[in-house]
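Fold this sequence, please.
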Amino acid sequence: MLGEEQRPARLTGWKDIASYLEVDERTAQRWERERGLPVHRTAGERGRVTADPGELDQWRQSDLAKPPLWASLRFLRGYAAAITALFVAALSLLIWQYWEIYAKGPPVTYRLEPGLLRTFDSQGRQVWQHTFEISPSGGLYHDSIAYQAGSFADLNRDGRKEFLFQYEYHQNQRARSELLCFSDRGDVLWKFVPGRVVQDGEQFFSAEYVVDRFLVVSSGPPHDNRLVVISSHHNMSYLSQVAALDARGATRGEYWHAGQLTTMAAADLDGDGRDEVLLGGVNQRHSQATLLVLNPTRFSADLSPAAKGAYRLQDQKPAAEIATLLFPRTAVNRKFEPHNWVIAAWVEKEAIQLTIREKKTAPSGYLASLLSKLDFRPANLDSIWGLPGRRAGSAMAFRRP
């Protein structure tokens, strides 16, 4: 900096100003924009830039002597406060995500709302939700029977329960049905669409089926895998399909039946550590209520022993039921109904309990039903005592109590 006696009286133009400050012209211009370098402009659009050397010396002493912003204690305190706030916010977000994902318990209940499926843990906290493109519809979701639509089960034996949901909806005025399998976090692992195109001796059947029931059974030793058994009926005919799926949703076996099977249960009837599947409904070929006992690991696909014609699927293996029971019709049933049918089947201790509907009169809805009880025990018998039917290669027998 020059002494006062050596200062020029006035600096004119950026060249003189930059030379006085011992910087280039761009730096001097940037200092004016960013740091308030005291310069003056004469009037006019293209007025000249001038500066007072004394003002420049004072500005240089006050401004250039200042420490940089990052060296300011005030700046450092503000910076530290901002970093701390960001850290607290990030930590809070991580804690919230952990709470949402891990701290909640596994889902144990569910609730169906229009277009939405929600699951909740034992404390009533929502675990996950799933939105449907087409809202579920149909009588299946009535409050009194809603439990039939969903089931929690550890299919993979990994300690986490998957959720199976019977999804019914209407599309193009047709009822549609699927079985969806969700992970414990709500991801769709697989879906099963029932039915396929098949043919008997008289007609083709389109792949339009509706799921009636499903349940999870044990395949027994040595691997004790879980199987999902699904019963479905054709939308417009007598045909029903029973499918056995593994934990990944792959079809392991099929059984086809002439008539709708509306109820299903499972129990280890012969004590071998493997669940048998009981299916109740109607046998359309005989126009009678029926109870089927199947081994879910050995399904087959034949409808009846008939060689040709209706009720006989083409290109299918012979049937291999453990037992087939046909229940005689009452005089009331023969007079008023085309057939009787099993509407409920369950296992209690060493007995199979059945409810057989004989008559339903509209509009009052009066029901006439019979309650049957079958005791079972492992035995080597070749017939089913007192009941018409047939069996194939099993060490299981039934007897009246």
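Helices lie at 13-21, 25-35, 53-64, 73-103, 331-336. The first helix runs from residue 13 to 21.
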